[in-house]
Amino acid sequence: MADNNIVADNMVVSMAYKLTVDGEVLDEAGELDAIEFLTGHRNIIPGLESQLAGLQVGEEKSVTVDAQGGYGVIDEKAIEDLPLDEFTDGVVPVPGMELEMKDNQGQMRFARVISVDKKSAKLDFNHPLAGKDLAFDVKIVKLREATSEELAHGHVHSPGHSH
Ligand code: ZN
Asked: In this structure, which residues have their CB less than 5 angstroms from ion ligand 1?
């Protein structure tokens, strides 16, 4: 029988955390607004989840995740020049601007404008945290076994919410 007090696959984990990148706190959630996720279903970045296995309720841990286990390394091919006349809806790109663009497959992609010249803009489609080491301070707040429905869907069903 599974031990409901230790993090393992197919459990719902409530976790408080703080994410620090380059010495700056980018994101945090305390015990009252802890995030909930289903383990073993790639609901959180793999380099973090792999270091949570075996933790007990109430336990705290500092975890460093390198770019490969986090948001990936910077892909030079994801830096693209786009002719200015391909910007629609009157968008005038300026360096630093963040854009949401549809690609050829109709998928929405986020991009940051790196530079602009007379004819084109250089866009970076990498995740903003690509190439970064991520430092997490985590605390396991609660644990429970996932329901069969959650396992079938691959995500947590919070109270008052199902889909
Ligand atoms: Zn669902």
From this structure: 153, 163
